[in-house]
């Protein structure tokens, strides 16, 4: 006899702002079950997860938890107030009297020491700390909403292993296909307010979903034919029996109403990259290049050639220097030694990971048109901006919306829309899959498959890498980069292991490495004046403060209800974030300039 469910939701419904978000949701989680919760962005997955966690009260329905069951929910915005260190925060979520060993083990496995000040954590560090707190007590049910957000490949693979060995029942929301396929054994699909369940993991879900849509389309076609038949009878049939006519007219109106109310899937994204004149055969060639920041080596002796039409993936742990490597290959940053040669007739478009190129005060239309009219040129053809925005799931009402109120997924779609509208023969995409739903990822993959130019892609999404790239450049540590043929899975076979986490500790030690002075050279004349030496000494502390401020501001802006609740605070935080990111960029540039003068 099967064990009774630990957690159940029955006939749950919830309405936000007069619009039904969830109309009929059912969930039953048995002991040890591995379930993924999937659905389009905005379908209500996170809200349903909060209902399951007991944090949101539904308008209708019943939530039941078996007595004695422990449930842990991974919050998107953990509250660190009142805790002196990250270890204190994790230990607070553990049962009284339990050993702190597991808390320390989890923090160290996630790249934290336990001594960090929770008020100064970046978004990624906050996510890792919250993960450690959720996992530490080994609960009966784990509710994890996007647990891989802000994690690099080593951390994602470690988390997979940890969850595979846990005794807890899992409910997972994630846009990482490989992660879901590895861990799930059942799938709950939230579609247009209702849930449907199959007893298969995510690997079997998409074929099942497509078959469901095909059957739904056949049913709609049958309904259309029945409407056409009734309309024909109404126009040309016998009219003597008026009562029967009235009845059939009523039936026709009912059929039409049913047809209008047929629940359709949310609109799909249409993507097409704007092609430019072909570049030369050689796109980028790096000849024995090296780059270091103080004591930290980013690139050491890399020789690489990227030819027209190549699809190169770049992977490595956070902090390995992937963005720096891109800047070197694009000629934005000069190497300490060696040479980078760019090919002829290059028209590159770069999609940056930090979304720093989106001004919070600009409207969605202004981002695409540059503030010049209501048209955007795509592949040499002029299109009205609203029509182009519909291709990327934006509504006409959002055309005049300021960037500051967009969600993370909407900002990423907008950046992709702008990048793809620009003529380019070289696309450089730094983490383009962040915050995108699975259907949008599919269409982005198809677009890149059809793209005629050259692609350089940085990503932590293993499945996306397998589907898109032809070779993978991997950080092996200590500035060494090695290229492997094929996708991520092919690299694993050739390399024999996955990506290892950086051995350098988090930001406190990194700042210490920045300030480490070069070995003293007898009789050497100082290369910097007193003021420059003082500036070089104080810049790392300033950068740390700016990084902490940026992390706090991003946490504030991540609140989905902030704009509606307090628009003034949202605008102020957006302005402060843009200013802090600009100041950090300037400080880093100045620090690098002084380091190079000192070393030179």
Give a written overview of the molecule:
- The strands form 5 sheets. The chain has a 6-stranded mixed beta sheet, with helices on both faces. Strands 14-17-18-12-19-20 form a 6-stranded mixed beta sheet, with helices on both faces.
- It folds into 4 domains: 7-206, 3-Layer(aba) Sandwich (Rossmann fold), CATH 3.40.50.300; 216-261; 282-495, Rossmann fold (3-Layer(aba) Sandwich), CATH 3.40.50.300; 517-599, Valyl-tRNA synthetase, C-terminal domain (Helix Hairpins, Orthogonal Bundle).
- With 600 residues, it is an alpha/beta fold.
- It has 19 helices and 20 strands.
- The longest helix is centred in the middle third of the chain and has 35 residues, at 202-236.
- A hairpin with a 2-residue loop joins β1 and β2.
- α7 (202-236) packs antiparallel against α8 and α17 runs antiparallel to α19.
Describe the protein's topology.
Blueprint: E1 7-16, E2 19-29, E3 34-38, H1 45-53, E4 60-65, E5 71-74, H2 86-92, H3 101-109, H4 123-135, E6 141-145, H5 153-164, E7 169-173, H6 177-183, E8 186-191, E9 194-198, H7 202-236, H8 242-261, E10 282-293, E11 296-307, E12 311-315, H9 322-329, E13 337-342, E14 348-351, H10 364-369, E15 375-378, E16 381-384, H11 385-390, H12 408-421, E17 426-430, H13 438-450, E18 454-458, H14 462-468, E19 471-477, E20 480-485, H15 488-495, H16 507-515, H17 530-557, H18 562-565, H19 567-599
Parallel strand pairs: 3-7, 3-8, 5-6, 6-7, 12-18, 12-19, 14-17, 17-18
Antiparallel strand pairs: 1-2, 1-4, 8-9, 10-11, 10-13, 15-16, 19-20
Helix pairs in contact: 2-4, 7-8, 16-17, 17-19
